[in-house]
Amino acid sequence: MKAADQLEKEGMHCCVIDPFTIKPLDEATIVKHAQRTGGTVLTVEDHYPAGGIGVAVAACVAKHGIRVKSLCVNDVPRSGKPDELLDMFGISARRMLKLSKNTEHFFRPADFEFKRILCRILTLHTAELCRGFILAVT
């Protein structure tokens, strides 16, 4: 939500979608927002790539020609404060903002103006809690 708030302050309007579960994903909603914003999705999660939400989203949207870029944990888990860990693993709001602003080559222009989509999917696996959201930036 920090990334969404900051992007709103900078004039990039956001739509937050809560997928609630990995299976089934709300394919129609993800595809609709991805197509409106140039056909690219960025997923960010506190999970390894294998079996994560990035892989699930990529499989869900592949037949629609939507590209998926995934930021996820690629290192051994460590103990620490949540904000420190998100930054350490490159999945913090700061990292999302940097990627969404500095990778114009990654996103394709929409038909009437350049838009971006930033999908932020955060999965928490504490006490069997699994929660997530997708942030679509238009």
UniProtKB/TrEMBL annotation:
UniProt signal peptide: none
Residue span, Transketolase C-terminal domain: 1-95
Top EC class of this enzyme: transferase
An example Gene Ontology molecular-function term: thiamine pyrophosphate binding
Cell cycle recorded as keyword: no
Annotated InterPro entries: Transketo_C/PFOR_II (IPR009014), Transketolase-like (IPR051424), Transketolase_C (IPR033248)
Enzyme Commission number(s): 2.2.1.1
Keywords linked to the UniProt accession: Magnesium, Metal-binding, Thiamine pyrophosphate, Transferase
PANTHER family according to UniProt: FI06132P-RELATED, TRANSKETOLASE
Name by which UniProt lists this protein: transketolase
Organism (species): Cylicocyclus nassatus
